[in-house]
Amino acid sequence: MGLELKVEESNFRDLKRIELDYDSIEFTNRLGIEVDSTELSDFMGNVEGIGQIETLSINFSSQLKDLEVVRAFPNLRNIAVYGYQITSLDGMGGFQQGEYIKISTESKNRRRRIAQISQAPIKRMSLQFARPEDLDAIGECVTLNSLDLFRSMDLDFSKWKRVPLESLGLMQGKFKELGNTAQVESLSNMRVLGCRNLEWFTGDNSRITRMVIEGCKKLDLRTLQSFQNIEALIVNGNSNKVALNEIGELKQLKSLWLIDCNVQVDISNLKHQFSRLEELQISNMKNEQVLELSQLNTGVIVSGRTYTLKGSLRTYKALNGSLIE
User: Fold this and answer.
1) What are 236's strand-pairing partners?
2) pLDDT, tens only, 229-257
3) How many Å separate Cα 63 from the centre of its chain?
4) SUPFAM superfamilies from the xrefs (predicted)?
């Protein structure tokens, strides 16, 4: 991995060449001086070594209002947009080698618009929600495979039918209910993290096979029944009292982790409810419960050990491979 070169926008003409050690560039503007994006782009396009830059970052202090500068980078793969002055993504058409974009302008810049996001063939995106139109813009992204969406309002998955999403992360969402994910035919992996207002799942969610739910304390776990084809499920940190049999019959479920949840284990024949179950971990189970369930359910690994999932690293591992390391 190469180094990141910081370029002060107000002095961009001081840059003579880009050394071989650098593959990333960040635009900052400590002086707050406005910069002509066309002049900046024309200049950068002629800087020696510009072809080795694969990652562009627009710092929160940048005075750029759009992404016209992108056309100066012929081999750009990744963009991170934090700029408080960004108003549009004009220039995305020049991001034809693009694979990933992060847009995180925070609450200080909710006026920015991302309607042009579909002009580049991006495969992965991390987006901090700012306005309802953001969700419509996502619906036009016909190359997008993976999306991490932060602080979103209610979602209408029917708007995303054309998006080839396989993996969706919903972080700190503001919605009370979530459902009908099956309208996105390719979507199979989900992460629902820190959505404190979420109370229930609704509709048809039968295409999801792997899911992590963390920090959703209000969620009614009985509504997990809408995920009829779930194979691997982790729920971490849910205080609602629920009996295991109330979760419903999930016939495809192989791995179930209920960590720091208020779950009453009220069944002995696990295979009756979860016919393909191979692994069950419920952190509040006592040793005698674990032993009894293990003896009564041959072929199922039963555990009551306390395991706290913290941070995205373990969450991603859980979704991308085995639920245990």
Assistant:
1) 214, 259
2) 999 999 999 989 999 999 999 999 999 99
3) 28
4) L domain-like
**Residue 119 · residue 97 · CB < 8 Å:** no
Buried b (16+ CB within 10 A) or exposed e, 51-74: ebbbbbbbbbbbbbbbbbbbbbbe
Question: For 136-178, how does the pLDDT look when each residue is reduced to its tens digit (9 = 90+)?
Answer: 999 999 999 999 999 999 999 999 999 999 999 999 999 999 9
Q: Is the pTM value of this prediction over 0.85?
A: yes
Helix (H, G, I), strand (E, B) or coil at 111: coil
Task: Return d(Cα 80, Cα 91) in angstroms, integer.
Answer: 14
CA atoms within 13 A on the CB side of 16: 0
Q: Are 215 and 195 in contact (CB under 8 A)?
A: yes
Q: Among residues of the chain, what percentage have pLDDT more than 90?
A: 90
Q: What are phi and psi of 137, to 5 degrees?
A: -65, -40
Name residue 255's amino acid.
S
Q: Nearest to residue 216, comparing CAs of 153, 152, 263, 173?
A: 173
Calculate the alpha carbon distances from 254 to 7, 238, 246, 277 in Å.
51, 21, 18, 4
Q: Position 64: which residue type?
A: L
Q: Residues 122, 98: contact at Cβ < 8 Å?
A: yes
Residue written as token pair 């979103």: 152
DSSP symbols for 15-44: --B--TTEEEEEEE-TT-----HHHHHHHH
Q: What is the pLDDT of residues 60-84, one digit of tens each?
A: 999 999 999 999 999 999 999 999 9
- Candidates 211, 203, 133; CA nearest to 170 is 211
Query: What is the C-alpha end-to-end distance of the chain, expressed in Å?
Result: 26
pLDDT at 311: 41
Give CA–CA dist 278/300, Å, rounded.
4
The token pair that represents 85 in the structure block:
């002055």
